[in-house]
Design goal:
Farnesyl Diphosphate Synthase; about 0% strand; mainly alpha; homodimer; about 350 residues
């Protein structure tokens, strides 16, 4: 985690929890109404995916996730001097695209669990995972375009660009699985596509709907893109060294999945004896038929080598570096000071979070 | 097939082959350029799907299909007094959405062949079929929205509505597979969603891009929707009684797939002794473990019962009925007489085609 920094001092000024709650409160009813437009049984499958019902159809208290994207979308409307509500169709469209990609990625990757629950394809079958993913993707455009404004058309173009990047990132992720080595640059490009592009869209969509110019929208996207890279670097750290109680994931989660995440690729690229030993171990692991039975100690040994080779510190520094670029981008957009402080606080939250 | 009608006389006035060729010639280069924007290996998978290359990557002469949708899209631009080229982004977007749905439907349905070739999921795997389908869907919006005009935003809304209907239709198709009986009304609703909605969009998208009003666009959609139902009724006839040489499908193709197409559901709904015998046979077939080994004679016997129960004649009459509604809708839109004649000729072509 980054050491004490100006970010820690700033955190007292803005109530991040309230910012996240505002995005969630504004977006969730519209998201639920939109998902409710789907014909049966797709409405039920979507409600299960979003955590609103369990596999038997009974209502549940979903945790709703961190809700960083909706918070950014409604906040960005304020850049254009518009009411935060102006950003809601954008917030919902971005959430719909994000969840369409989760439904399809979980099936493509064969992932059986997400947020402690069986994934949609496990519960409702592959066809429903494909179909409801498609439906959420189409709903994103429906929600975004139904206002019929010029801003909606511009926002839809940016959403399309983000979605194309998201799909490119998934294509890269799939191709990297079949390779022994992935460079740090390739990993960053993939993470920029999979995480950065949609956070970029979330950070500009409210402003675009509120009538902001293209240059300001581009700059807000730059903020969001680098925030996304910082977010993913922290995610990659938590994926190895996160507290299972806080993250809700298994210990050494990303190592168990043999994920070529930033700490791993950075450690492999670092050179030196720990890096070389790690490379030999992971190459052997890739061929091992006993991998599923590996003990805690075996994963801990790999994590220690990654740390010894410098992969942990490099990734933490990368999170801080991307965080700094994101904050600096904010300086290129004219906005009320208290709006700027909120964007900064959300960026600070992303890099210090424990889950 | 429908008997001799005024349609036969009209067919001499307009060169339908030239109309179809115009749509194909205008749309194909833009479609190829758009698919070429995809990152590897998605560009290759898309090119395989479109029939531009074979499974080894060698260029092939694809037959390009009937190309009714692109022909309608560029023709509809002329309703607004615009150059046919104005409709091209719409034609390409509609083709991209159509092909996204084919990629996903073939995987969901487990279909291994399309147009005499292995389907994408058979050649490139399920993950690529999902991913490239998603990419084509996103590309549709990219191509449609990149002009940035108000018409493009309106066209995107209509494309979204059509896509939502397409997905609803696929959901119905999947659910009907698990049921013994489907009513004629349910079958028509499903076919309207799966085929009518996108032909409706194709028939209006050029006009919308050319600046036509919403009322005219709605009326053109009505033409296209009913044309789609006529198209599908003819497809359902060809799926049972079509000449394999002309259709490129197996004999009794839809019966082999146990498709609950219009002739079948109409025959089952008709009542009488042939209808009842058909119902008993199909119920037994559904449980048969020997279905894959059925002889030509066994399928011919089922086709004969469908015909005896009136399913063939009912479907042919339905094609004529939908064709008439489509033509009548044209009367509610103000357009040059020669444009109206072309729309009429395309509708005539759809109901008299042999493949």
């Amino acid at each position: 985690m980054p050491p004490a920094s100006p970010a820690d001092a700033r955190r007292t000024a803005v109530d991040v929890a309230a910012l996240l709650e505002r995005g969630r409160t504004l977006a969730t009813p519209v998201l639920r109404e939109a998902a409710g437009r789907l014909a049966p049984p797709m409405d039920t499958v979507a409600a299960y995916h979003f955590g609103w019902i369990d596999a038997h159809g009974n209502p549940t208290e979903g945790d709703g996730g961190k809700a960083v994207r909706p918070a950014l979308a409604v906040l960005s409307a304020e850049v254009a001097g518009a009411d935060p509500k102006t950003g809601v169709p954008g917030a919902v469209a971005v959430e719909l695209v994000h969840n369409f990609s989760l439904l399809h990625d979980d099936l493509m990757d064969g992932d059986e669990q997400r947020r402690h629950r069986d994934t949609v394809w496990k519960v409702h079958g592959p066809a429903q995972a494909i179909l409801v993913g498609d439906a959420l993707f189409a709903l994103a455009y429906e929600v975004l375009l139904e206002s019929g404004t010029a801003g909606a058309g511009r926002a839809a173009r940016r959403l399309t660009a983000a979605t194309r990047a998201l799909i490119d990132g998934q294509a890269q992720d799939i191709s990297y699985e079949h390779r022994d080595r992935v460079s740090v640059e390739e990993c960053l490009e993939m993470e920029g596509n999979k995480t950065g592009a949609l956070l970029a869209c979330a950070s500009s969509v409210g402003a675009v709907l509120g009538g902001a110019g293209e240059k300001d929208a581009d700059t807000l996207e730059r903020y969001g893109y680098h925030l996304g890279l910082a977010f993913q670097a922290v995610d990659d750290l938590l994926g190895i060294w996160g507290d299972p109680v806080a993250t809700g994931k298994q210990t050494w989660s990303d190592l168990r999945q043999r994920k070529k995440s930033l700490p791993v690729v950075a450690a492999l690229a670092a050179g030196g004896s720990a890096s070389e030993r790690l490379g030999e171990l992971l190459a052997a692991d890739a061929k091992s038929t006993d991998f599923a039975n590996f003990s805690e100690e075996e994963f801990a040994a790999r994590a220690a080598l990654i740390e010894e080779a410098g992969g942990r510190e490099w990734t933490a520094a990368e999170a801080r570096r991307q965080h700094t670029i994101a904050i600096e981008a904010l300086g290129d957009v004219d906005m009320p000071e208290q709006v700027r402080e909120k964007f900064t606080a959300l960026a600070d939250f992303v890099v210090v979070r424990k889950r």
